[in-house]
Design brief:
With 250 residues, the chain is mainly beta. The protein has four helices and 20 strands. It comes from Pseudoflavonifractor capillosus.
Length: 250
């Protein structure tokens, strides 16, 4: 199943994507699917971020090559940080940094959306809590992150988490090709099988400390190849079986 959120008559509506049509839902799909009879051509829809998270839980340095390029060593456990709800941005949306930001980076990542409250989840039960997988760009004000000595401000500026274009349960997140392109040039390329901490273990580790709510997002880390974006750039995160998340830097 492929889930999207679209704008209809100024209101956000959930839908199921079937071929080139969106079959709209009466409410969020976390507990059940209730169709409202609406049917819209996808090309006529304005896609929104396919979730409404109370928080985005991020994993730092989950690929060995990225940990090495950051020059701070390989962590012995997952490094967690949060992006606030104000960071959520839509597919095809614009990303704009405050004027004081000197370096704005892309970080293409696989993310998953939580479908029910999750606390003290065992690794072997992780699938029961995942609505589906999506693409996320962990946009980062790199100079701010380094100057602050912690990551909150540099990671949580408005619009710094484009998500989408959809959420799907039709892929296996353990081994997917992920690629980031900047103005059509491939700048990141890896497979999620290279995660240092796999998704089942991440779910157990995260929920040992915090409760995840329906709609929350867990994003799994970025591979090597991070770099700067500038006004006028187009950045695309493509993940096998999910699609392309495209955004414009302003």
């Amino acid at each position: 199943m492929k889930l999207v959120r679209i704008e209809r008559d100024g209101t956000a509506v959930w839908g199921v994507l079937k071929d080139d049509e969106v079959l709209t839902l009466a409410g969020a799909p976390y507990e059940r699917l209730t169709f409202d009879g609406g049917r819209l051509p996808l090309k006529q829809c304005r896609l929104l971020a396919p979730c409404e998270p109370t928080k985005i839980v991020c994993v730092g340095k989950n690929y060995y090559d990225h940990a090495m390029e950051m020059g701070e060593g390989v962590p012995d456990r997952p490094i967690l940080f949060l992006k606030a709800p104000n960071t959520v941005n839509r597919p095809e949306g614009e990303v704009s940094a405050p004027s004081f930001v000197e370096r704005l980076d892309y970080e293409g990542e696989l993310a998953f959306v939580v479908k029910k409250r999750a606390k003290h989840v065992k690794a072997e039960e992780y699938r029961d809590y995942i609505l589906g997988y999506t693409c996320l760009n962990d946009v980062t004000a790199r100079d701010v992150q380094k100057a602050d000595g912690q990551w909150s401000r540099g990671k949580s500026m408005d619009g710094f988490a484009p998500i989408g274009p959809l959420v799907t349960d039709e892929v296996d997140g353990s081994d997917l090709k992920i690629e980031t392109r900047l103005n059509g040039r491939t700048v990141q390329s890896a497979r999620t099988s290279l995660f240092m901490t796999k998704i089942p273990a991440l779910m157990e580790f995260i929920t040992a400390s915090m409760t995840l709510e329906p709609g929350d997002v867990v994003t799994t880390g970025t591979p090597a190849g991070i770099g700067a974006m500038r006004p006028g750039d187009v950045v695309e995160v493509e993940i096998e079986g999910i699609g392309v998340l495209r955004n414009y830097i302003r």
